[in-house]
Design goal:
2 domains, sigma factor activity, WH-like_DNA-bd_sf
């Protein structure tokens, strides 16, 4: 599904088209679950967060004013559900590479790319989240700002600091 198809499906879902909403779920459930896993590192908790997020999306999709930002809105809902859970638990776990990422077939990766993944995991949480959304989820800077509820300039500076730190670490 490309961005135009997603936008059209959102518009249809906003008008009550259940198959359109189901196609959005089919296409975007897994990315939203992987994002939740990236945040909480617990499969069962990630499933709960994702389910709660999709419940909010189903209930509030008609309120979305700009259908073209649906994916960013969805990720923001997931992010806020994660924040809600961590507030309830009164702790926030640091981001660690999940089992899916650790099972990368190293025969297809060179040593430097594995080192880079380890270095990314050493970045501060806010920078790591920005790097994840920008490079792995291929989201725009404005979408990342929307998801994390910070200014576009803040996202740019987080990405800049992350890149600078990674270059420094790689040159050592």
């Amino acid at each position: 599904m490309n961005s135009t198809q997603i936008t059209l499906a959102v518009i249809s879902a906003q008008q009550g088209d259940e198959p359109a909403f189901n196609s959005l779920c089919t296409y975007l459930y897994n990315p939203s679950f992987l994002f939740a896993m990236k945040l909480c590192k617990q499969k069962d908790l990630a499933k709960d967060i994702t389910q709660e997020a999709w419940t909010v999306v189903a209930k509030d999709i008609r309120k979305l004013k700009e259908p073209s930002v649906f994916k960013a809105w969805l990720f923001r809902v997931v992010y806020h559900k994660f924040i809600d859970v961590t507030r309830k638990d009164k702790y926030i776990e640091s981001f660690q590479p999940d089992k899916h990422e650790q099972s990368i077939d190293t025969t297809h990766c060179n040593e430097q790319s594995i080192d880079l993944a380890k270095l990314i995991n050493n970045l501060p949480d806010s920078e790591r989240l920005s790097v994840y959304l920008f490079y792995l989820e291929q989201m725009s800077i404005s979408d990342i700002a929307l998801i994390t509820n910070v200014a576009v300039g803040t996202v740019k500076s987080r990405l800049h600091r992350a890149r600078a730190q990674l270059v420094k670490w790689l040159s050592e």
